[in-house]
Amino acid sequence: MTKKNPTYKLLKKKKRKTEEHLITYASLFKPDKKDKKILELLEKNARLSIADISRKTGIQRDSVLYRINKLKEKKVIRYFHTLLNPAVLGYPIYSFVNLTLHNLTQEKEKSLIGFLKVHPNIIYVAKTTGKWDFTINIAAKNLNHFDQIMTELRMKFSKIIKEYDTSSIIQEYKFDSMAELIE
Length: 183
Hints:
By secondary structure, this protein is an alpha+beta fold. Helices cover about 35% and strands about 15% of the residues.
């Protein structure tokens, strides 16, 4: 993205939030059976009202509200999320890109993460272990658009990107509930 690019200008105007990680390693919280029932319902439909959750679980409304607030406070519930269908929205190229880095400094890593977080077509960023250092998810309008995004990334960070691998999602078969793992 160059300074002449309108997307660049929009991104610069966005106020930066304090860094917030989606997964945090805080103190362990052990949800009970009632919490588990609430979480299972919310994972299936986060738009359920307190009254609906109360009716479906048999837990009083005030208790449901209290428990949801406690789960949010304890970071069990990170946020409520709508799962969009990228293909229907005009982004049929939905690909994971794995990156291996080298010659990395804290400054270069911070610059890379900053770029990945503000790029409008990079919708997921995770630092990983193993062969790949980062996994990102790109939503693109077509293969040419995907190639433009990858070229921009590779050119901007050519000194630290050692290797990359792409995997396009053809069909999703499972997006499962985490609440089922609660013991």
